[in-house]
Design a protein that fits this description.
alpha/beta, Rossmann fold, 5-stranded parallel sheet, 7 helices, 52% helix, 15% strand, globular
């Protein structure tokens, strides 16, 4: 089973229903739900998702959404080494550098994001949800 790292923006597309991006995120996460792929996210994604969802939902509802979401993904740890790698990274956006470092540290070969431009200097493959979904399996 292929393992991929999914950036927070795609997770938020799914969980907040951001149109028109949510439909692609739904297809991507349905692949994980069916066992076709394993989706990994960093632990900081949960903090970022909570922050954004609290503008749409109550704290209780946000926590329920996060709990359900956690059943679809594997949560990867962000530790001191991850932060050191992000600090030394050539990526300009620090949050993206953390995400990239987390994926690399866990030997994942692909990051799925809508934010391709911020990953120009990535050392692993970076794809949009559309590109990933349309690739042959």
């Amino acid at each position: 089973m292929e393992q991929v790292f999914v950036d927070t923006d795609v997770c938020l597309d799914l969980l907040s229903g951001r149109m028109p991006f949510n439909s692609r995120a739904e297809v991507l996460f349905s692949l994980a739900d069916s066992g076709s792929i394993k989706i990994c996210v960093s632990s900081i994604s949960f903090a970022n998702i909570d922050y954004v969802l609290r503008s749409q939902y109550t704290v209780k509802n946000t926590r329920q959404i996060l709990a359900k979401f956690k059943t679809l993904v594997t949560v990867l740890t962000v530790d001191s080494k991850t932060i050191d790698l992000a600090i030394a990274s050539d990526l300009n956006d620090f949050e993206d550098a953390i995400q990239h470092s987390c994926a690399v540290e866990n030997y994942l070969g692909t990051i799925i994001t809508r934010n391709i431009k911020d990953y120009k200097k990535a050392s692993i493959k970076v794809m949009t949800p559309e590109a990933y979904i349309s690739k042959p399996r």
